[in-house]
Fold:
Amino acid sequence: MNIIKRYLGLLFVKLLTLSIGTGAIHAQSIGEKNVYSPSNKLIVAHQEATGVIKMRMDNMKSIGAEIKKIGAMIRGKRPFDGSQIAAASERIIVYGYKFKKLFPEGTGKDPSQASQKIWTDWGGFTFAMNKMVRAATILAESGRAGNVGQVKGSYRALGKSCGGCHRVYRVKKKRRR
Ligand code: HEC
Structure:
């Protein structure tokens, strides 16, 4: 009787270690391929939100904040100040240059809105980024010259450069705006 009990006990321990073992292996394999289990997704989302994806989202938000300041002056909601427009545009240029490093390959997964197209068409993506930097450069120059007409025109061009890239290289995912 005792022997049977001990045997069953050992069997139980054996089964337990076996199930833990295969569980770990299973977790590892889905971790590598990454994905669709909800708990796994949570971990991935957390990692990305604190990594390079978070950095580029913040960078993009800063670009958005700068262009908003400029827009408020153009629409007369804030007093027009060419030197402030120039300074804000120059900050956009700096953010633009940072960008190339903020899109390492393989970082297009949730929660990122970066399209895979960025990496299949890196040339087009950097072209779109250069377009933004060029538009911001012209806007900075027009602001510094205090040329209101030119500021308005180059502001529009800068805005178009955002949309031009987003349309192609950014995908809207349900969970985000
Ligand atoms: C060359 C491409 C490109 C250009 C130019 C560009 N963006 Fe983006 N933007 C992206 C991509 C890609 C994302 C998604 C990044 C991600 O989720 O990983 C993004 C995301 C954003 C976001 C959302 C950030 C967040 O918190 O998720 C804002 C805001 C934004 N862009 C504003 C702008 C503005 C304003 C401009 C123009 C002055 C601009 N972008 C120009 C590619 C671009």
Q: What stands out?
A: The two ends are 66 Å apart (CA to CA). The mean pLDDT is 80.
